[in-house]
Amino acid sequence: MNTPIIDVRSLSRSFGTLVAVQDVSFQVHRGSIFGLLGPNGSGKSTIIRMLLGILPPSKGDASVLGLNVRSDAEQIKPRVGYMSQQFSLYGDLSVQENLDFYGRIYGLDRERLAERREDVLSLTGLKDRLPQLADTLSGGWKQRLALACSLIHEPEVLFLDEPTAGIDPVARRHLWDLLFELSGRGVTLFVTTHYMDEAERCTEVGYIYQSHLLVLGKPHQLKQLPEVNPAGTQRYEIRLPSPARHLAALRRLPEVHDATLFGETIHLLMDQSHSPRQILSQLELPPSAETRKISPSLEDVFVTLTSNAEKQSIEPGAPPSVPDADLATKDSTPPPSLTSSPALAAPPALTSSPTLAAPPPPAATAAAPPATSRAAKPFSRVRSGVVPNAASPAKPHRNSWTGLWAVLLKELVHIRRQPTTLFFMLVIPAMQTIIFGYAIDTQIEHIPTVMFNMDGRQISRELTAAFENTRRFRIDAQVRDEESFQRALSSGRAKVGIRIPPNYADQLLRGEQTKLQVLIDGSDSQVATTAQSTAQLLGMNLSIQMARAKGDALQLAPARNASGQGVLPIEVRTRMLYNPDLDSSHFFVPGLVGIILQLVTLFLTSFAVVRERELGTLEQLFVTPVGRKGLLLGKLLPYALVGFLSFLIVLVVMIYVFHVNIRGSITLLLVLSMLFMVCSLALGLLVSTIAKTQLEAFQFAFVIMLPSVLLSGFVFPRSEMPLPIYLITFTIPVTYYIEILRGVVLRGADFVDLMPWVLGLTICGVVVLTLSVARFQKRISG
Questions:
Q1: Transmembrane residues, as ranges (predicted)?
Q2: What average pLDDT does the segment 49-60 reach?
Q3: In the prediction, which pLDDT does 359 show?
């Protein structure tokens, strides 16, 4: 028994409420050319994608080369070739580069690749065009290149989705000559087309219309169907001058069942009881017109079956009838018109269709309202070349405002049907308003502060409370040793460190001046300035209060310095750490490094993947045996390299232009930057799995970049944000990276200091990468 190469069993595919393919069954045997015909949108490409394993069926099942398309898709791909309807190779690669790329994808070594390249070049005639870029090839040569790439690995089955669409007749003929040669070599061909003349070249033909398979069989068998050759009828070809002028009249004759224009001839299906001469005489046509008997074409087959289904009003999805000669027909509800082959059809206005109503009889025309008849007269005279009279309505006045309403309505419809654009236009402004008006507060309060109280008595505790009561400082920790004090500052957990000396209370009681040290992280100049001025003002106020109280009681100077001069009791000595000059560039430039690195990797990655999806090259890759990990790493690593070079360039600018030196370990900075880059690349990949177009990718990337700039601490301190938004900032990866950058660059922080930020960035990276990889599938999303 001859086992079929392709076996399709009740295959169906739905996209929501749209049924693209319904209950289709057929078989294809080795070495045959199977033609699946049907107009655009009938389900041909959907069937091919299901057979290739990149689109899962909704119902039914199918096998290719004995392998199930659901469970064995990755085993099918190395053994088949695919030539998509749209040219989906890389236009910026040369002919040889495209061939070499697909040869490597299929795992050919150097010697085998060179051998196969020579074979396919010889077959397709592309030897003289090896250095030419694919984008510069004409349509026919592009199809040859696509065929060569699909044959580079010697597939057993070749799927061609409308391979001759959009190319000239000569290129079509040459391409079919190549297909015949491949078939002669034993390659099984599965071809989709909507050209009827191409169907004649297939060994078996299936006709699909509106997701239903109407008929299946060999071309000569289909032409013998009784539905196509009704009893008591005969087909004739009549050649006469200006045939289009007589077509409508022929269709009105009761003995004529069908009349179709074919170039300069008319094909008639008429009763055998009448002869063509009788028909010509009824229409007063010259009897010298040539007439001959003809056999039905495949177009006649498909038109007849579709028309019969319409007349019988058969429900879509009814089980097919199986006539003799292994012909399986299946009824459906066809669309109102059937497009014939461009190679055979007459101009659109003259093409016959089974559902085009015949012109009304003369009586019906005469019974039309007078207004209709009068309205038709000027039109007739215009077509005859006669200028309409003065009573004809004048043409509407045209000016620069013409078409405004039509364009306006069209754009509104576009906007309504683009959810991402509506989100970008309506939600993002609201988000910006909330961030700027509510979340961002330029008034600095609650600065994280570490307290090192070496005195510990009541007076020193009152000083701690005084600092906290200013609302400018928030005592997050009270440490007991110098190492913990310095670690809190270098790690960035505290922006201010207050050191109270051990003899603070004793000096005040003895009337001596005590020195209070306030260490301020100057990497954020805005926070540092606020902390400095508040600490000095607090020291002044406390000193005045003490001086007034003591002076009133003893009428003496409240405190004296070592030389005996009267001074304020408390001297607050502030010292700026890391950025003593409070240069704003030391604050912004390290953060800018993180923002730029995310911007480059996020946009490049998301745009690159979405662009390939738009061009169709990604679908072409899906049908190859390239692994998902190989595809992902191959796509992401080049952009990781570009992003890393961008990072180095920005670092050089930071050091030599803005004079921001790196205090910490450069190795640590590079390693943690690579960790952040992985997270940014994963974000770009995630965007590419959501966005369908480059415009959508830009919008989603902008949505990610907006909070990254405003909520990450790059510009505005996070400590001043309301608690709900402050918590949201921990979900933004660049938040952790900016803290790492400022810690290493400005404070010289080591890995222990940065541990909380490294841990947060790692968690973000793992979550985003896992989600991106899970969403990125080697199949087309339904």
A1: 422-440, 587-610, 636-657, 669-691, 697-716, 723-745, 757-776
A2: 92
A3: 36
* Strand 6-15 with 18-28, pairing: antiparallel
Q: Give the position of tokens 């006669």.
A: 386
Q: Mean pLDDT highest for which of 84-88, 205-209, 295-299, 757-761? A: 757-761
Running DSSP on this structure, what letter comes out for residue 358?
A: P
Question: Whole-angstrom distance between the N-terminal and C-terminal Cα of the chain?
Answer: 37
Q: Distance between CA atoms of 332 and 315, rounded to whole angstroms?
A: 6
DSSP 527-558: HHHHHHHHHHHHHHHHHHHHHHHHHHHHSS-S
CA-nearest of 231, 244, 233 to 275 is: 233
Residue 687 in tokens: 């965007």
HSE (side-chain half, CA atoms, 13 Å) at 767: 9
Q: pTM here?
A: 0.67
Q: Which residues are CB-contacts of 427 (< 8 A; sequence separation ≥ 6)?
A: none
Residues listed for the chain: 782
Neighbouring C-beta atoms of residue 697, cutoff 10 Å: 27
How buried is 563 (Cβ within 10 angstroms: 0-12 exposed, 13-18 middle, 19+ buried)? exposed
Where are the CATH 3.30.70.100 domain residues in the chain?
231-293
Element (H or E) spanning 268, and its range? Answer: strand 265-271
Query: What is the per-residue pLDDT for 646?
Result: 86
Residue of 215, 190, 194 whose CA lies nearest to 342:
194
Domain boundaries for CATH 3.40.1710.10 within the chain: 447-577
Q: What are phi and psi of 582, to 5 degrees?
A: 50, 45
Contact 162, 193 (CB under 8 A): yes
- Return d(Cα 504, Cα 512) in angstroms, integer: 10
pLDDT value, residue 72: 92
Q: In this structure, which amino acid lies at residue 627? A: G
Helix (H), strand (E) at residue 26: strand 18-28
CA separation, residue 412 to residues 406, 408, 430, 642, 699 (Å): 10, 6, 21, 40, 19
Where in the chain is CATH 3.40.50.300?
A: 6-194
Look up tokens 């510990």; give the residue.
Answer: 456
Tokens of 129: 């065009």
CA distance readout (Å), 334 to 181, 197, 306, 307, 312: 36, 21, 6, 8, 11
For residue 767, which amino acid is it?
V
The mean per-residue pLDDT over the stretch 225-236 comes to 86
- Domain 447-577, what architecture? 3-Layer(aba) Sandwich (3.40)
Contact present, 718 and 735 (Cβ < 8 Å)? yes
Q: For residues 566 and 96, what is the distance between their CA atoms, to the nearest angstrom?
A: 90
Residues pairing with 571 in the sheet? 515
Six-digit token string for 445: 């309060």
Domain 6-194 has CATH 3.40.50.1370: no
In 3-state terms, what secondary structure has residue 245?
helix
State yes or no: pLDDT of 653 exceeds 70: yes
CA distances from 224 to 217, 219, 220, 295 (A): 11, 9, 7, 9
Name which of 365, 379, 356 is nearest 306 in CA terms.
356
pLDDT in tens, 306-351: 777 666 544 444 434 334 334 444 333 333 333 333 333 333 333 3
CA distances from 119 to 115, 127, 185, 367 (A): 6, 10, 13, 71
On the CB side of 407, CA atoms within 13 Å amount to 5
Cβ pair 147, 164 in contact under 8 A: no
Structure tokens at 631: 């595809």
Task: List, for residues 452-477, the tens digit of each pLDDT value.
Answer: 999 888 888 888 888 888 888 889 89
Q: Is a pLDDT exceeding 90 seen at residue 24? A: yes
585-610 confidence digits (pLDDT tens)? 677 788 888 898 898 889 888 888 88
Cβ proximity of 322 and 229 under 8 Å: no
Architecture of domain 231-293: 2-Layer Sandwich (3.30)
